[in-house]
């Protein structure tokens, strides 16, 4: 079984910290009079009023809280920022650099997985004096100088910090999405979220997080390649997501594994430990060795070379090679090479992730688990439960619903422990997470309800 290490990333939009603005000297400002004002005029401060979901009281939300972050003007009279800045926002406003007024904004598109969002303004005349920032078409080089623009805590004016590009990798963002990530040593602090990172006179990415703990000067930006994929995706007015493969793989570094698979020394790649699907039509099988994506070879650590000094995870090529939901691959099965077309998808439903991404999520109320309950039905459902009219049991699920449950979708589903275990596995959601229309179940005792509510935290 493949093991993973978990490293805590600190979202930089909402934590308290201090940052000292690094202002270029007067000589530098006078030497570049055209570039600096254009970039500074295109960076905005974002004000958002947040109402986060409450998993313990899913029929309501947490109390409002105000947060500030950054954003940047892009083409199409839009503003680019991070998804975590506006995902649960009930009100969004922006303020230009050195301006005294706030302009109302609405969220046009949001991609929580890759942490990107686009805003549009109620007053389009704002963009007459605030031009879009040009974006670089290529990845930066390691050691390239970079400036991070934004409005971090510690002051109200625009802050500019300087550093270099330290590392470029393809890593996991918010499950199950992965993408390219650039590491910089320019100071990235709370409030820098959504601010542009500039190399030369062009934007190379968007600041979004920093590494917490005892580390220093490790900040992360989302590169333009991920930004462009996101903007291309939402061009039709809907965000579909990034294609990816969800099979479980392992490296081919172990000599004993190579001997078990009877592989020649020339074969390099990744071993399929568990295919995403087990039906006969699925092209990948257990113990297949994935050796190439397109014409690009994969090494025994699952890496591919993009440049002389740049290696990234082979998964990066999936989003670049996908065409009509399929990716060309070369595998070795039973010692023989084969060409396959692997189906890839952006959809990978998981209950907890989907639960947290909805502004009015379904969630836990009484008993083991209650799905789809709204506050206005709480009292009537409780009364029906007390009468104990009828009950039903199907696949380990005890269900109870009101008379108009099918039309309104206000149901109460009490899951047994085996069903709950299956529910939190992505492979089992399709068989368990559904509407159950049945008559009432006798009310759960208060003590049992309290115990089961208290155990929710452990899921």
N-C termini distance: 21 Å
Q: So what's the CATH class of the largest domain?
A: Mainly Beta
> Would you identify the CATH architecture of the largest domain?
Beta Barrel
Biggest β-sheet: strands ordered side by side in the sheet: 8-9-10-13-12-11
Low-pLDDT windows of residues: 1-36, 359-459
What does the largest sheet look like?
6 strands, antiparallel, barrel
- Fraction of residues in β-strands: 25-35%
Task: Quote the average pLDDT.
Answer: 77
Spatial extent as radius of gyration: 25 Å
Overall spatial form:
elongated
With helices defined by DSSP (H or I, 4 residues minimum), what is the helix count?
12
Query: How many strands?
Result: 24
Q: What is the name of the CATH topology of the largest domain? A: Thrombin, subunit H
Query: Percent helix among the residues?
Result: 10-25%
Any idea how many domains?
A: 3
Judged by helices, strands and strand pairing, the structural class is alpha+beta
Write the layout of secondary structure elements.
Layout: E1 9-11, H1 26-31, H2 35-41, E2 43-50, E3 65-74, E4 78-81, H3 83-86, E5 89-96, E6 103-111, E7 116-121, E8 145-150, E9 159-172, E10 178-184, E11 196-199, E12 202-211, E13 219-223, H4 224-233, E14 248-251, H5 255-261, E15 270-274, E16 289-293, E17 296-297, E18 303-307, E19 310-313, H6 316-321, E20 326-333, E21 336-343, H7 351-357, H8 378-387, E22 392-394, E23 397-401, H9 405-408, E24 411-415, H10 417-423, H11 429-432, H12 446-454
Antiparallel strand pairs: 1-12, 2-3, 2-5, 3-4, 4-7, 5-6, 6-7, 8-9, 8-11, 9-10, 10-13, 11-12, 12-13, 14-15, 15-16, 16-17, 16-20, 18-19, 20-21, 22-23, 23-24
